[in-house]
Amino acid sequence: MNRKNIFVLSLLAGLSLPAAAQKDSIAQKGNTFVQQTIDVGAEKTFSREQSTSSASVITRDNVDKRSAKNIGNSILGQGNGLISLDGTGSYFAKNPTFYVRGLQSLSTSTPLILVDGVEREISVVSPEEVENVTILKDAAATALYGYKGINGAILITTKRGKYNSNEMSVHYDHLINYQTDRPKFIDGPTYAAAMNEALFNEGKGEYARYSQEAMAAFQNGQYPYQYPNVNWVDETFRHHGVTNKVGIDFTGGGERFRYYTALNLLSDKGFIKTPDATSGYSTQDKYVRGNLRINLDIDLTPTTMLKANISGLLSENSQPGNEATPWSNIYNLPSAAFPIKSETGDWGGNSTWAGTLNPVALTTDAAYFKIHERGLFADITLTQDLSSWVKGLGFFLKLGYDTYSTLYENHSKSYVYGSYPVTGWNAGEPVLGDYFTGGERTEMAQVAATRAFARRLTAAGGVNFDRTFDDHYVYSQLKWDYDYQHLNGNNNIIYRQNYSWWSHYAYKQKYIAELALSYSGSSRLAPNTKWAFAPTLSAAWVISKENFMKDIKWIDFLKLRASIGKLNADYLPGDNIWTYYTQSYSISGASAYYFVDATAAQDLYGTTTLGTMATVNPSHEKATKFNVGFDATLFKGLNVEFDYFFNHRYDIWCSGAGAYTALIGFGTPYVNQGVVNQHGFDASIDYTHQFGDVTLNIGGNMTLAKSKIKDMAEEPRAYDNLVQTGNPLNSIYGLVSEGIFTSQEEIDAAPRQTFTTVRPGDIRYKDVNGDNVIDANDKVRMGYSVTAPELYYSFHLGAEYKNFGLDMMFQGVGRFSAMLNTTGYYWGLVGNSSLAQQVYDNRWSQENNNANAKYPRLSSESNANNYQTSDFWLRDRSYLKLRNIEFYYNVPKQLLAKTKYINGAKVYLRGVDLFTFDHLDEVDAAAYSATTPLTRSVAFGVSVTL
User: What is the signed CA dihedral for 126, 128, 132, 134, rounded to 10 degrees?
Assistant: First the structure.
């Protein structure tokens, strides 16, 4: 959807600088900001007032506004400093991508995900069981996580029980889902014309593929089996899917015992149109999941506490047989390929387009394939107060064990497909050749096995000191952490240890300092480099507590803070190369050496060659992180966060190929030479005010993160325009286009383009280096990253009148690029694939001969000239999306009191991802290159508390 006013809306977002909506009331929002707790892994939380870390909190009332399948999809657009991008694929596979403060390194920028302090997948947690989500952004916030916290962290904290209470709540959500911006492909007659045109452009004649008689047959539809016109999208998919969510939780406790128990069930049925054509099973995309959580807090004695968290996950995902991806097939299958079924009743298919591409057959007659998830996650913490020995002294022990696996059931089967080919025309009628047949009908497979597994054992122990001396408050902790991780595959057992000392000091609760010293070890690193030291220092000044601030009534709370620290990472070079510190060798059996003679019984030895050279003096990636910011509450309801950050990443693994020539004869070593600087800011504003019976809430957040590669061990470049050092991370490098050639005379007069034979209708490129030749040496940096935006923002508006409420949140990005290169859509007809209607309508042709056409001439095969990375295909990927909107009604307390059982009830109507403003035609900029469309949803829900 193309909207030119996106800039105005973006500007409003920046000026309003998310606050998200309330669960039952937004009137309390202005009072909770200062009391928000920050957890940095020190076994103690501090209020925002007393914390020195840079952290933002997505509160309990805000984590479940999208009726999403997991907490990751639920917090899209939320969290100051958190960049969250839409996932693509089926409902089962669709999970967002997260970055904390954007792209940070040449290696990876993926943040650490923690659930109750233990590293876990974000996809296994239901939003209903979450108390809050904390975004840990600076060195002070992640100093205690050793080798794993260098890219920031997302800490998910689940709900806990309450003393002397007993509460039960039930919720239900029913969602109707619609796919947005389904691709519009050309129909059968248009495909035939387009293919003929492409071949004519290539000098192969006017009717090189489809004769005049065939063209007429496509138009009149007289012979649908030989000249079909199938709308594969509409024939394969229905227009809506359905999701149901139901859950129940119990919260309570007694004098010495607290509990929280939740059971959440989810069922999703996708968009396949005819899933029940075969009796006995369904081929629908289906996902069913159950989550169970039990959190316990037990006061074993007045000084001994036990905390236990247990959660389990069971899920089943079912999809068409052979793990078919019908959307991908549709991009490769034009409307004119073959009919759904031939006149014999076989599924459609021919020698050009195999029937295995037939999406209707795949979603109807290929049976099904299932993936099962099994997960058990448990951790237990024992805390002992030793104040009877030394006041303020205590210790803790923690043990955790997680196991997760996926298993598959393959019940796929194959089918017969075929068609009668046309061998010619006689008296105006097609002459049919021998029947073509392919495939075979088989019984359903009966195969099951483990696909993947993961096990994790964590242990921790430490002593802490927590005491106040008059105006002085001290909390200090010595801690040991151990982490064992075992994934399926080779070299996937990892051991990590971390020793840390963390101290917090406050004077009169105004002047605060924190020191973290960490010594971390990892089995991933080379001998003698496994251990590393990391210090972090941070401080805060609560200015609003100073006497000179007492008369400034409009400032309720103001705190300045700053941090600087060093962090380490145990990333491996290349594609997780464990052997980087040793000389590698390879043995090939292609040539055999005989040590006796060719007839004797003996072992045969192949050629032994040198592999990759060993890294000399290896190290590991490091970061120096600096952060300065403030938190404030103004005018009794305006909450403000602002941070400026600067990150210096160094000793990043890079290929050492730039320092060697090919003459060395073996693989070049990896080197710790990469350096990246990153800086930017994140800001958040949230304002709540009550006007009589009306409570208004408005807010937003914004993150700008810019990077610069200072060193990447780059090879010497022949021209300055090719140098990548000095540019942002994940930059695009391509050719500069100068329109489209309209004649052979233009081609002859222009610099020679070397990629392939150039014809009228091809893209014309700029000779950047002035050598009168267009080749890879003319590439330049262009646009922004296609991986993550530099600018990310959201804004929120909520209103409540008595028991009625409205809440909405928009989320957008800027300084973000798209490269249009989807085969079968933008790059159509290639390999007999399909083509987008909008590309066909805006192409260059000999009839229009438009030098400024939106797309180049049609090509029947991959066009090495036109399909270069260039600014011709570059687009602005900025967008603004309505993430969620909710209308709700809280049933009055006095009405509920008459039931004597119900303490609270809420009904609501939600819209999720309803529309997007962007600069792209026909596709959603949030997932422009994905074959499976994104969805929008309308949800009706009810929650009841007893």
Answer: 20
Q: What's the pLDDT tens digit per position in 892-933?
A: 988 988 888 898 999 999 999 999 999 998 899 999 888 899
Pairing of the two strands 752-753 and 773-774: parallel
Q: What is the DSSP letter of 110?
A: P
| CA separation for the pair 619, 573 (Å, rounded) | 11
Average pLDDT of 484-492?
86
- Give the separation between CA 347 and CA 356, rounded to whole angstroms: 9
Q: What is the pTM of this model?
A: 0.93
Residues 6+ apart with CB under 8 A from 186: 194, 334, 335, 834, 835, 836, 837, 840
Q: How many whole angstroms separate alpha carbon 909 and alpha carbon 173?
A: 9
What confidence score (pLDDT) does residue 16 get?
Answer: 33
Report the relative pairing of strands 585-593 and 605-610 from DSSP bridges.
Answer: antiparallel
Determine how β-strand 436-439 pairs with β-strand 416-419: antiparallel
- The alpha carbon of 86 is separated from its chain's Cα centroid by a whole number of angstroms, namely 6
| Bridge-based pairing state of the strands 804-814 and 780-782 | unpaired
Nearest to 266 by CA among 67, 66, 65, 23: 67
- What is the CB neighbour count within 10 angstroms for residue 67? 25
Chain-centre distance for alpha carbon 133: 17
Distance from chain centroid for Cα 506? 39
Structure tokens at 482: 């151990």
pLDDT reading at 818 higher than 60: yes
Report d(CA 153, CA 134) in Å as an integer.
8
Q: What is the pLDDT of residue 12?
A: 34
Inter-residue long-range contacts of 429-438, CB under 8 Å, 24+ positions, other chains counted: 430/213, 430/214, 430/217, 430/223, 430/226, 432/226, 435/344, 436/349, 436/350, 436/351, 437/346, 438/349, 438/354, 438/355
Q: Which helix (H) or strand (E) holds 258?
A: strand 257-269
* Gap between the Cα atoms of 673 and 657, Å rounded: 12
- For the segment 138-182, what is each residue's pLDDT rounded down to a tens digit? 999 999 999 999 999 999 999 999 999 999 999 999 999 999 999
Among 580, 530, 676, 792, CA closest to 151: 676
Per-residue pLDDT tens digits for 323-349: 988 999 999 999 999 999 999 999 999
Q: For residue 109, give the nearest of 701, 578, 730, 655 by alpha carbon.
A: 730
CB 183 within 8 A of CB 331: yes
> Quick one: how many helices (H) and strands (E) in the chain?
11, 47
CA atoms within 13 A of residue 751's CA, in its CB half-sphere:
18
Residue of 770, 673, 771, 776 whose CA lies nearest to 725: 673
pLDDT at 321: 93
pLDDT at 184: 96
pLDDT at 623 over 80: yes
Instruction: State how beta strands 112-115 and 153-158 pair.
Output: parallel
- Full DSSP string of 382-408: EEEE-TTTSTTEEEEEEEEEEEEEEEE
pLDDT (average), residues 743-766: 96
Structure tokens at 374: 């099994």
Cα–Cα distance between 566 and 622 in angstroms, integer? 7
628-637 pLDDT, tens per residue? 999 999 999 9
Cα separations in angstroms, 879 against 706, 816, 873: 19, 9, 18
Is residue 796 within 8 A of residue 18, CB to CB? The reply is yes
Q: Which residues contact 216 (CB under 8 A, 6 or more apart)?
A: none
Q: Are 87 and 930 contacting, i.e. CB atoms less than 8 angstroms apart?
A: no
pLDDT of residue 632: 97
C-beta separation of 683 from 641 below 8 A: yes
CA 525 to chain centre: 28
